Structure to design on (287 residues):
């Protein structure tokens, strides 16, 4: 047993020595590499820098690639190589997930080379940058709208591109986000009992995005807002507003006869019908 314990200790010490040696070697390689890179940054050999940019980019070392590009892009601005270098620069920032900077460089590339060899992909990537920046529905949707516009421009300019279907899918996703933003804003108006503002917001949203997945809920919220707006109005305004509620009720039932909101919709109809004294039952109204 003592011998076994001794051997275990020896093996453990050997393991830790090898591990420490391995760490030291890695540190030395990194130190040498960093030293070489620092020399490269200070070098005036721009051809070497250009070569290393492409190497760093291919290896996914985007920070080093962009730092070198900052130095050499002005020198190669009027050359045939400028297009490739500008493309690598934009792609590198995208690889670093710096979508704000990448987007500006993709758009700059399109401005400089509208018919360049990367024009199609740059147009798509510029829209993708806005897509990646676009926030959740609760926040401002400026970047969301920019992304939709970017994908739309891409589809119009490159209708035969294999990326068109992906653009349409992403546009649909972004549009739903904007609709959700409208829905949340309208719901906030509703919760604050600002029914008129809720009606306007929901009407505009339903008109702009007629096929939204939120349609049934938004239409119900609009109907309920109309009803509550009428119910809380001054007496001389109630008849007109209850009539608007009744009209909207028929539109809702025509589109969603078996709605999950049926119980509340029925209550709205009965109260509205009673006020207007139409004499129509809910059964007759739905036939």
């Amino acid at each position: 047993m003592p011998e076994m314990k001794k051997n275990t200790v020896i093996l453990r010490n050997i393991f830790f020595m090898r591990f420490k040696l391995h760490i030291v070697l890695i540190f030395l390689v990194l130190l040498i590499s960093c030293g070489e890179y620092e020399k490269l940054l200070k070098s005036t050999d721009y051809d070497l820098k250009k070569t290393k940019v492409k190497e760093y980019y291919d290896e996914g070392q985007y920070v080093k690639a962009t730092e070198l590009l900052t130095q050499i892009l002005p020198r190669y601005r009027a050359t045939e190589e400028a297009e490739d270098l500008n493309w690598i620069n934009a792609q590198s920032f995208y690889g670093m997930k710096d979508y704000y900077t990448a987007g500006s460089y993709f758009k700059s590339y399109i401005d400089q080379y509208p018919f360049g060899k990367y024009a199609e992909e740059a147009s798509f990537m510029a829209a993708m940058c806005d897509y990646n920046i676009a926030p959740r529905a609760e926040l401002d949707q400026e970047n969301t709208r920019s992304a939709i516009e970017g994908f739309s421009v891409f589809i119009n300019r490159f209708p035969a591109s294999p990326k068109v279907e992906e653009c349409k899918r992403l546009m649909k996703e972004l549009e739903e986000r904007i609709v959700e933003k409208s829905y949340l804003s309208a719901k906030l108006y509703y919760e604050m009992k600002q029914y008129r503002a809720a009606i306007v917001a929901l009407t505009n949203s339903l008109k702009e995005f007629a096929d939204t997945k939120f349609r049934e809920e938004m239409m119900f919220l609009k109907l309920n807002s109309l009803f509550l707006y009428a119910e809380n109005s001054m007496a001389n305004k109630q008849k007109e507003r209850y009539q608007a509620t009744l009209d909207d009720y028929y539109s809702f039932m025509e589109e969603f006869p078996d709605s999950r909101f049926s119980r509340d919709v029925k209550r709205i109809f009965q109260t509205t019908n009673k006020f207007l004294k139409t004499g129509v039952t809910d059964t007759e109204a739905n036939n």
About this structure: The chain has a mean pLDDT of 87. The chain is about 80% helix and 0% strand. The first helix runs from residue 2 to 42. The CA atoms of residues 13 and 19 lie 10 Å apart.
